[in-house]
Design goal:
Elements lengths: L8 E2 L3 E4 L8 E20 L8 E21 L13 H9 L3 E7 L7 E7 L2
Parallel strand pairs: 1-6, 2-6
Antiparallel strand pairs: 2-3, 3-4, 3-5, 5-6
Length: 122
Amino acid sequence: MEQEDDHTRKTGPTKLLSRNLDYTYRGISLKVRNIVEATAGHIHCGPVGVNCPVGVTLFTGESFSGNFTLQGTITAPDDGNGCGWEKLAVILDAIENGGAYVNVHPFAHATGEIRGQVMAIP
């Protein structure tokens, strides 16, 4: 597996919030600052410092610049994702064991620019 590109900015942990008791969804809050033309954000499987496949798409489409907060709900991994994640419980297990990170991808750096390990908040 490849190491991160030199342009990757590391952030503090990304916080996931609001897990319901039956593990059918998990809320996420992601703050992004000082980015130019962010076109996608994903949760990737993988430990600190190792580039790994996408497991969950957080956003794609119209680009964002500057500062923004992404808030939403994760209910399942992407179909056919490169992590092999098949259900939410597997994603949560990866998060709780340090095996998931968020990467925000701007137009200029399609492999990602802002990266932070995901941290679960009980």
